[in-house]
Write a structure and sequence with these properties.
By secondary structure, the chain is an alpha+beta fold. Among the domains are: about 60 residues; about 160 residues, no CATH class. Helix content is about 30%, strand content about 5%. The strands form five sheets. The protein has a five-stranded antiparallel β-sheet with strand order 3-4-5-6-7, with no helix packed on it. It has a two-stranded antiparallel ribbon with strand order 1-2. The chain has a two-stranded antiparallel sheet with strand order 8-9. Helix 1 runs antiparallel to helix 25 and helix 8 crosses helix 9. The radius of gyration is 37 Å and the shape is elongated. The protein starts with a helix and ends with a helix. The relative contact order is 0.12.
């Protein structure tokens, strides 16, 4: 009996020691697995810089294991950068770096790059610029992730270019998918919009916005703002003027044109001197009538485009040296300088909801304190009148204060307008800033649909304007025929809509000396000899006496408060090209297992000790 007890004690003792030993060895292994910090890049590069082997995936595709140190050194992803990034910053499992490397769950190369791209979102905001659904023109947010390239496919894996070099080096990555295109197509697609010089402080150019605000950028590219000025050598098709018209008396030719301005009403042309000055050439092409209008200037007179015009044709103008960030009316013209926001998008906001003053900076006429015909120092969010004094002379305004020549929509808008009483109505309520919109004025909806959104009671024209009952059957009536008549001039007489939204007022024409001195909405349509301003007044008075006209307190009173927009659809996650099972790492089991093993060993040792001492006590 004593011999059997001693044997049991020995078994428990040595078994406990064995288990504790195994637990200690396991603890060493766990400490290695969870080493902090992980191995340096040198350890990884030492193995992979000359590694000619490949990893064969279940699909049969092979992944090279070679990584060039020079690619990593030139990449923003290196340990000496502003933000320290090493090999194990990207090559992670759900826990930490481990060697030997765990088996990838990816079944194909596409799935591998998709999984790798998910690591990018640890540091970078999701974006997928320049990609729409090619067939349906769907916004990126609505496109299935399987139809979109991922981070690795666009930027590569190790040879990742800094932002400033993307336009130079990314083109081959585009052609990997767009095999039917040439290299120059890809380079033009990703090339930044250029300006002249560096421009004002804090401006980075609209291309910087493309990464996160893709749909807004791609929509804006189609607008007149983005296309307000072209380099004639890069976009020769932008020149609509006919330089071959017979008996043309121009003092310049097509060869003199460096830049062309305008695509809608008129085109003006700019030449560049040997000294680099940009001068407005003395001739205008009227698009509607296909004819030239020659400027008759004094001998030697020139117009310097930079100091007289540039503010409303470029983004990020620095009036100290007349350099600017980019040609065209870009994102930062409306939202303000974007450098700080681009550097810290979650901490610094831009001027997110531009007000009417932003539009008014260019859609008004006047003079800045420095003597420029534009508010050179104005930035979105400022009070416009701190930087600009509006003009009010008879060459630019009608006697009633409304615009006589173009680029004065804002000064029309602020004139005793009942719409000003609503905080919900702005220029962008009607005009599309991020898309082509409807018609030549790029409204968000066709005119009558736009107006009836607030003025539904006037939708039935037969009730709203019953005295036009016969005319309604012969032509289409638009709300702006009466409430936004063509009263200002850009290229030809009366080609710009009035923006005061006033009631038709033929009496105003009589008060100011006749139609020649003050036009009105009625007589812009009724032009027969007998249809005078007096006739229009009599007709309106007769209609009021004989028809029940639908009216409200204000014909253009503030509309109903818009309902809150729907919650936006979350952006699709990167890397879901195919359904990939999530990688489950059971490394967390190991420390618990070895700790349990050590605990069992300790219990066995205690039992052996207890048995041994109890036997000694019984023998005594």
């Amino acid at each position: 009996m004593a011999r059997g007890g001693l044997c049991k004690t020995r078994i428990l003792f040595w078994g406990g020691l064995l288990l504790i030993g195994l637990a200690w060895l396991g603890a060493i292994d766990v400490a290695t697995v969870y080493a902090d910090p992980p191995p340096s890049d040198g350890a990884c590069i030492g193995c992979h810089q000359n590694n000619q082997r490949t990893l064969t995936l279940p699909s049969g595709e092979e992944l090279p294991l070679l990584a060039f140190p020079e690619d990593l050194a030139a990449s923003p992803h290196n340990r000496s950068g502003e933000v320290e990034v090493g090999c194990t910053s990207c090559h992670l499992g759900p826990t930490h770096y481990r060697y030997p490397h765990p088996t990838t769950p990816a079944q194909s190369r596409d799935e591998y790059t998709a999984l790798a791209s998910q690591n990018c979102l640890e540091c970078h905001v999701y974006h997928n610029p320049l990609h729409r659904n090619a067939e349906d023109e769907e916004p990126v947010a609505n496109v299935a992730p399987a139809d979109l390239p991922n981070c690795v496919e666009c930027h590569g894996s190790h040879a990742i270019a800094p932002v400033a070099q993307i336009a130079e080096v990314m083109a081959p990555n585009c052609l990997a998918c767009h095999t039917d295109q040439a290299d120059d197509w890809a380079q033009a697609l990703i090339a930044p919009r250029t300006g002249l010089g560096e421009g004002a402080d804090g401006y980075v150019g609209s291309r910087t916005c493309l990464g996160c605000h893709t749909d807004n950028y791609l929509g804006w590219e189609d607008t007149l703002h983005a296309r307000t000025i072209h380099d004639a050598s890069l976009a020769p098709d932008a020149i609509l003027a006919d330089f071959e018209q017979p008996e043309l008396e121009l003092s310049f030719g097509l060869a003199d044109v460096k830049y062309v301005i305008g695509q809608k009403w008129q085109q003006r042309f700019i030449s560049e001197t040997e000294e680099g000055e940009l001068l407005v050439l003395p001739g205008q092409w009227n698009i509607a009538t296909n004819e030239w209008v020659v400027d008759h200037r004094a001998e030697g007179e020139t117009v310097n485009w930079r100091t007289e015009c540039s503010f409303c044709h470029v983004t990020g103008l620095d009036a100290a040296d007349w350099e600017f960030q980019e040609f065209g009316i870009g994102c930062e013209d409306c939202h303000g300088p974007g450098q700080a926001h681009a550097d810290a998008p979650e901490e610094v906001a831009v001027f997110n909801e531009p007000d009417d003053q932003v539009c008014g900076a260019c859609h008004s006429r006047g003079e800045s304190p420095e003597g420029h015909p534009f508010p050179a120092s104005y930035q979105p969010g400022d009070t416009l009148t701190d930087h600009f004094t509006f003009t009010a002379d008879e060459t630019t305004r009608w006697p009633d204060g409304s615009a006589k020549i173009h680029n004065q929509q804002y000064t029309d808008w602020i004139q005793s307008n009942k719409m000003q009483e609503s905080d919900e109505l702005t220029c962008s309520t009607c005009h599309a800033a991020h898309g082509q919109g409807e018609g030549p004025s790029q409204t968000v909806l066709p005119t009558n649909e736009l107006c009836s959104g607030c003025h539904a009671e006037k939708t039935t024209l037969a009730r709203h304007i019953p005295y036009h009952q016969q005319a309604i059957t012969k032509r289409d009536f638009a709300c702006n025929d009466c409430h936004m008549p063509l009263m200002a001039m850009s290229a030809v007489e009366y080609d710009i809509h009035n923006h005061t939204f006033s009631q038709p007022n033929p009496q105003g024409s009589l008060d100011h000396g006749g139609l020649e001195f003050q036009p009105n909405a009625c007589n812009q349509c009724h032009t027969d000899r007998a249809e005078t301003a007096e006739w229009a007044i009599e007709t309106i008075n007769w209609a009021k006496e004989n028809y029940s006209i639908v009216r409200t307190e204000y014909v253009f009173a503030p509309g109903p408060t818009p309902v809150a927009p729907p919650v936006p659809t979350p952006l699709p996650s990167v890397g879901e090209r195919h359904e990939v099972s999530a990688y489950v790492d059971f490394a967390w089991v190991r420390p618990f297992f070895f700790a349990g093993l050590g605990l069992v060993g300790l219990v066995l040792l205690l039992l052996a000790g207890r048995w041994f001492w109890s036997r000694r006590a019984s023998d005594a």
